[in-house]
Specification:
With 124 residues, this protein is mostly beta strands. Helices cover 0% and strands 49% of the residues.
Amino acid sequence: QVQLVESGGGLVQTGGSLRLSCASSARTFSNVAMGWFRQAPGKEREFVAAISWNDAITSYTDSVKGRFTISRDNSKNTVYLQMNSLKPEDTAVYYCAAARGAIYYTRADLYNYWGQGTQVTVSS
């Protein structure tokens, strides 16, 4: 069983930045792809960003391209989401997820493990 723990959420003004972290208990963290998803009130969970096991491939949803950056440090079993130029529409609970043996996925149902989520609120 893999445990994922997110941190770094909070309240920020429009245009501000936050850095989310997701620490994994996976013994073979370097062999799993990681993703970030978000869910706003009344909306479905949506894909935000993903990164392959070897950090070679990243993917972003269009609305965050150029503003968000996903990265990972396999020596620390941690994946990050740097969020810049935040907008009120970025307000959501952000979840990290892990997929075994994958390049990366954009579909939530293909991830095997999920964190508990961290709240990001962007005020206008």
